[in-house]
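Homework help board

Subject: predicted structure for assignment chain

Our instructor gave us this sequence and asked us to write out the predicted structure in token form, then describe one feature. I got the tokens but I'm not sure how to describe them. Can anyone check?
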Amino acid sequence: MEAAFHRWLERPPYDMDPADLARSLRRYGWDFDDHGRRREICANVAYRLEPEPLPAGGAPAEQRCPWCTSPLWVALDGDPADPRFAAALAHTGWRGRLRILTCFFCTTYATIFTQVSPDSAATWSAHTTQPAHLKKRKPLPEDPPAVRLAPGAERHGEYEGHDCEGGSTLGGRPGWIQDPDFPDCPACGKLMSYIGAVAGGDTIGQDHGVHFLFLHAPCGLAATVSQFD
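My token output:
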């Protein structure tokens, strides 16, 4: 099947638009490397992400959202010494500690990109595009949830979790609430790898909304995509 899809992309059958086929494949997480081999963008193993309260007073605001000035939230802090992180991120090619920052609130309006490096550094990326309607008004700053997420037990399946309390997941495959929305890396155009999801039930106590997390290791870019029911 993989060979056929790649062949159709290179030499489409009569009346088949290769651009439409490529969009359909990418929408559902299919991608190919430069040699025509399928590139796996999801992990075949999944673990719970358990919410833990931050110490009294919370964590100091390292950076603030340039749009609403809210403190940026650490959506994921992955220690490579933990075999669960190593297994869940093996398909990405990432080496080192991974910290993903995002604006818990503005990711509602747009995909938030973070520049990341193996020494755990993370900064808001200039590739993040502000929607036009947000430029006309300035949202008020708010404090993000005072929780951090730590890896827990292995899940029974790759699609388990996501959209409810206890649904936050490291690895596995996205359980989309709306249409699939795998982001392209804004630096090189390659499809970004899926690495996990943070459920609203684990952060704000409401089973409403999920932050899906992505990574493109070669360019050092992470992304947060939010969907709501």
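Reply (TA_rk): Your tokens look well-formed. For the description, you could write something like this. Strands lie at 46-53, 73-78, 98-102, 112-116, 122-124, 147-154, 169-171, 193-199, 210-216, 221-227. That's the kind of observation they're looking for.
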